[in-house]
Specification:
- The protein is of the alpha/beta class.
- It has 13 helices and eleven strands.
- The protein has helices at 5-25, 60-75, 93-102, 112-115, 134-141, 144-151, 194-202, 215-221, 231-236, 262-265, 270-304, 316-321, 323-342; strands spanning 47-52, 80-85, 107-111, 158-164, 169-173, 187-190, 206-209, 226-229, 245-252, 256-261, 308-311.
- The protein starts with a helix and ends with a helix.
- Bound molecules: beta-D-galactopyranuronic acid (GTR).
């Protein structure tokens, strides 16, 4: 049987990744005991890991990844290195998640959208209009239930170390859209997940799932009529240059997650796990600052570029249209939806 180039490159990445880990395992430091008998840093192994992100270098998630790597390096006195690979260099988001499950790529920053296909509990974030604001979202993410959701990734051979900010997602199209009715019949690209397919169908559109990296050319060639994302992605992936109409409905707030492969995590000492966990949590504040900056800059940029921006004053017609989606999934997420409701203060 012939292997497709995609499959082949996936296997190569898997092999390369595995050999990297093996060489990392070989790098044990000198044995030295401190005076009180506890182990010093040099008792621990040296590690070199990879972290995949599909955004460009200066994007807030990549800046967060780099801060995380820097903190890990500092806290381990240079013993644990995390090399960040931006721009989807290691593969599209779905294949990255699969590689993290295998341990071929050790770390990644991915969206809860595609993650939900691997870990059902995270699907709750794909449900439309469940958060009122960024504050509401972060109240929930920082709550016990929010943290529990991160832990649920363990069932999918990963661990969620921290959430990163990703704002709210809006629809953008090549033809003007003034209200929810206008979305009817539009071919809209979505992240690969069943809830997204249902969401677009409920809005009267045709959902076209495809990898993020293919959206620009598909908009350009007319394969799709629109897509949906937050402002920083709309701008940094240049979608605003081909889909010049955006309607700010904020249908989803899909946080990003820094994940680590369980296969790798299980090989780490408790002390190293602590270093990595703490570093991920500490990188969040910086990532959120950078996020806020880029959201503002992106808004300014699209205004300057003459994008047709439509504000939505009343979300009720949008919420009415997607009620069937909430009804379909309510019983799967009743508990979490209740906690999300309570985080609205
Ligand atoms: C972005 C997210 C990416 C990717 C992309 C998409 O907001 O940061 O990881 O999921 O959306 O729509 O595919």
């Amino acid at each position: 049987m012939k292997k497709s180039p995609k499959r082949l490159s996936f296997m190569l990445t898997a092999i390369l990744g595995a050999s990297l880990v093996l060489s990392a395992c070989g790098g044990a430091g000198d044995k030295e005991k401190t005076s009180d008998g506890t182990k010093s840093d040099s008792d621990e192994k040296a590690w070199s890991f990879r972290l995949a992100d599909n955004h460009p270098d200066n994007y807030p998630t990549v800046l967060g990844d780099k801060k995380f790597a820097e903190l890990v390096e500092q806290k381990s006195n240079g013993r644990i290195k995390i090399n960040v690979f931006p721009n989807g260099q290691l593969g599209d988001e779905k294949s990255i998640i699969e590689q993290v499950q295998l341990g071929a790529v050790e770390f990644a920053r991915v969206s809860t959208g595609p993650l939900a296909e691997f870990s059902k509990p995270l699907g709750v974030f794909s449900l439309p209009y469940i958060f009122d604001s960024s504050e509401h979202e972060w109240n929930f993410l920082n709550s016990d239930k929010g943290k529990e959701l991160l832990k649920s990734l363990e069932g999918a051979k990963m661990l969620g170390l921290a959430y990163y900010d990703s704002g709210a997602r809006h629809f953008y199209t090549t033809k003007p859209v003034k209200n929810v009715e206008d979305l009817k019949g539009h071919k809209i690209r979505v992240q690969q997940s069943q809830i997204n397919m249902d969401l677009i169908a409920a809005l009267g559109g045709n959902a076209t799932p495809m990898p993020y990296g293919e959206v620009f050319s598909s908009l350009q060639t007319g394969v799709i009529d629109g897509a949906e994302n937050n402002l920083p992605s709309y701008v940094s992936a240049n979608h605003y240059q081909v889909a010049k109409n955006i309607i700010l409905d904020g249908h989803q707030r899909l946080p990003e997650v820094v994940v680590v492969s369980k296969a790798i995590w299980d090989k780490l000492s408790d002390a190293d796990k602590k270093i990595i966990q703490e570093a991920a949590e500490e990188s969040v504040a910086y990532q959120r600052e950078e996020w806020a900056k880029m959201e503002k800059d992106s808004e300014a940029k699209i205004k300057e570029a003459g994008v047709n921006i439509v504000e939505v004053d009343d979300l009720t017609p949008w919420q009415d249209k997607v009620k069937s989606v909430i009804d379909k999934y309510y019983s799967d997420y009743a508990d979490v939806l209740d906690a999300i409701d309570k985080a609205r203060k």
